Automatic annotation (TrEMBL):
Residues 336-404, 437-456 are annotated as: Disordered. Residues 353-404, 441-450 have a biased composition (Basic and acidic residues). InterPro entries: Excalibur_Ca-bd_domain. Signal peptide: none annotated. It comes from the Bacteria. It comes from Cytobacillus firmus DS1. Pfam families: Excalibur (PF05901). Residues 419-455 form the Excalibur calcium-binding domain. This is Excalibur calcium-binding domain-containing protein.
Length: 456
């Protein structure tokens, strides 16, 4: 099914796949050529003469436009298409209507939803009608496992391949994801790729790649390009100091600091595995307290004030002054108060349980309703498919009957046209003798009238 909607389809394309699964089975319908590529598929309605409308899909391939439905298929080469017109559907302002001329016929399809997939469809159609041989990369043909980075875009440009605007938009998954995808292509066997930087006078880079070497890259999402800034061999980390923080790991190497935003422990394990010797930064007990790790005075001051404030609030809650009158609560009042508390708790628990039961019943009812609706839709869909198949069978039977009748009529007509001038002609044709009812028999040839002509 990827051949029709690609490996990263939109929700509307997934819905189309579910709705038209049967007619998209290539092996069953054999609507595509052996090397024919699908560029885009959308749902539409074909308008036929006499006001008949047929639901189906409109597909653009690298050679033609096709309309495919459960009852019929039709296609037109791009070179035959003229007078393309795209207008808002008069029946629904949220839908498009497409019309064009092909082979002397006016083709009209409507009920085309307004969305990004449709915009891409119209873009491809215009490009292919302008130049049927033009190569186009779309959201269907592109493998989203690979990022459209600057190098790949340059390759497409040199090959005169047009990339649809929607593909560029959909391929952009954000700066972090794009950078990771690009570097995974550059380093397919990397142990890990994480966000981080190298700091000399200032922090530089966006990603650290740990492969056969250790690399620092700076990624520019606008240019879709990763610049290599630094490279180290594993041996360069002999004698380094590894400092673990709550949210990062800092490796102090000659000339600066390498900061891992994650996977710092894995990097230290790798160094140990490779036989590198390094030191893990040890801290005094007070340096393990949040706010005291860096050793900066202002951070210690803020942390100290915060901890003291928390301490004073806690002590006030525990040892705060209490009204002496409140301390002398009679035991009977205490018992009554406890009873009231227990009653309130029981009431609350009962109310909560009732609410839970009501919510469970509501959810069960909703689930049952959804299941019934799904079953109804499935039954309707099945009935429609069976009706369509039955109609197709009837049409095929009618066609075969009409063909048989036509063949019989042609045979009779052919028989009426067989004529022999005399018995010499019969014998020359190798048909002698001929009897009553045989092709070419006539009383003129049957001189003795016994029903057998040219028997001598």
């Amino acid at each position: 099914m990827e051949k029709w909607i690609g490996n990263h389809p939109t929700l509307s394309q997934k819905s189309l796949k579910v709705k038209y699964r049967q007619i998209l089975q290539v092996d069953r319908w054999a609507v595509l050529g052996e090397n024919e590529r699908v560029l885009k598929v959308i749902e539409a309605e074909l308008n036929k003469r006499g006001g008949k409308e047929i639901d189906g899909i409109v597909a653009l391939t690298d050679t033609r436009i096709m309309f495919i439905s459960r009852s019929e298929n039709s296609s037109y080469n791009y070179s035959s298409i003229t007078n393309i017109r795209i207008a808002e559907d008069g029946k629904d302002k949220h839908e498009w209507k497409l019309s064009f001329s092909a082979g002397g016929r006016l083709i009209v399809v409507d009920d085309i939803s307004k969305n990004d997939d449709t915009d891409e469809f119209f873009f491809i159609l215009n490009q292919k009608v302008q130049n049927p041989n033009r190569r186009i990369e779309t959201t269907v043909t592109h493998d989203f496992s690979y990022f459209l980075h600057a190098g790949r875009l340059e390759e497409f440009r040199k090959q005169n391949v047009v990339i649809t605007p929607f593909l560029l938009k959909r391929d952009n998954q954000g700066s972090n994801a794009n950078g990771l995808r690009l570097l995974k292509e550059k380093h397919p066997n990397a142990l890990f790729i994480v966000q981080g930087n190298f700091k000399k006078d200032k922090a530089e880079g966006d990603y650290i790649v740990v492969d056969d070497l250790v690399y620092i890259y700076k990624y520019d999402n606008n240019e879709r390009f990763a610049e290599l800034l630094y490279t180290w061999a594993i041996g360069a980390f002999n004698g380094v100091t590894v400092d673990y923080f709550a949210l990062k790991t800092v490796v102090a190497i000659e000339g600066g600091e390498l900061t891992f935003n994650s996977n710092g422990k894995e990097f230290a394990d790798l160094l140990a595995e490779k036989g590198a010797f390094f030191t893990i930064q040890k801290r005094k007990w007070h340096q393990k307290i949040l706010g005291f790790r860096s050793g900066k005075l202002w951070k210690k001051s803020v942390a100290s004030v915060s901890y003291l404030l928390i301490l004073f609030i806690g002590m006030a809650m525990i040892f705060g002054d209490e009204d002496p009158e409140n301390k002398k609560i009679p035991s009977q009042e205490v018992a009554e108060a406890n009873t009231e508390i227990k009653d309130d708790q029981s009431d609350n628990l009962a109310a909560e349980q009732k609410a839970k039961d009501e919510e469970a019943a509501r959810l069960a009812a909703e689930k049952k309703e959804k299941e019934q609706e799904a079953a109804r839709i499935a039954a309707e869909q099945k009935a429609k498919e069976e009706a369509a198949e039955e109609k197709a069978k009837e049409e095929e039977a009618a066609r075969l009957a009409e063909q048989k009748a036509q063949e019989e009529a042609e045979a009779k007509a052919a028989a009426a046209n067989v004529y022999y001038k005399n018995c010499d002609a019969v014998k020359a044709a190798g048909a002698a003798p001929i009897r009553t009812g045989d092709l070419g028999y006539s009383r003129k040839l049957d001189r003795d009238g016994d029903g057998i002509a040219c028997e001598g």
